[in-house]
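User: My instructor asked us to take a sequence, write out its structure as tokens, and then describe one feature of it. I'm not sure where to start. Here is the sequence I was given:
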Amino acid sequence: MRIVVTADLHYNIARSRRPTQRLAEELCGLRADALLILGDVGGHDPAIVSECLRLFEGFPGRRYFVAGNHELWTAPGGDALARLERELPEAVRQAGFHPLDVEPAVIGHVGLAGSVGWYDYSFRDHRLDIPLRFYRDKIAPGAAARTPGFEHLLAGAADVPPQALQIGTRWMDGAHVRLPMSDEEFCGRLCARLDRHLAQLAPQCDTIVVGLHHVPFAELVPAQQRPNWAFASAFLGSAALGETLLRHPKVRHVFCGHTHAFGIVRRRGLVCTSVGCTYLAKRYELLEL
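Assistant: Let's start with the prediction itself. The structure tokens for your sequence are:
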């Protein structure tokens, strides 16, 4: 069995459109049994997600999709949970893909599971010494000091070191992802669902392949010397995702995206690969089982 995996196509961004089209042409010419696309395909507009996925209509095997954080961006008044659990699966199915976020699948002896994953700040860079409340609002102290509406984070802020006020980053999920719960709760909800899907698959297959958007192991978080980028490490994944995977010995191959950096981590009998697509350079992994 041959499984092709890619991620982070960002078809809503002009400089990514032609590279994505070229990638689609190449993948549709491969002899493979399954295609996994691991999120950040088209951003907040489901119509662009569908447009991108239809580029792969000529792929000869089965097609599977996992959402990215950008697919959960909504307009004011929107609901990211409804987007993930109802609106996006419908659009994905109409484009000929199976939504692994809501339902696992089996091909022969291989189980397939997937999740957008999420973050609970377990990968934050503790060297920055930034209090947790800034991560929860997804804004660094320097940006909070300059942005109306975040004054409460700095009021009486004796716990904010002076160097943190030089960090001016915002993680834009904070402006565009509207959830009815905290990030920690959402991450826990998704880990619990993935855990159920993996348990469901185990009796039906010999090997399980998992596709994630966010990364499950700290080693896949790119090392950053620049404080602005180091602040963003908190939003790249969760240790709880990795713990969930390691509870299921039939999980042998895991793929993820999100960081735009290639990397491989081995834990016990599991190999986890970060695909490493950028806005301009699209690539894929080919797994043969």
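For the description part of your assignment, you could build on this observation: The CA atoms of residues 57 and 155 lie 54 Å apart. Try explaining in your own words what that tells you about the chain.
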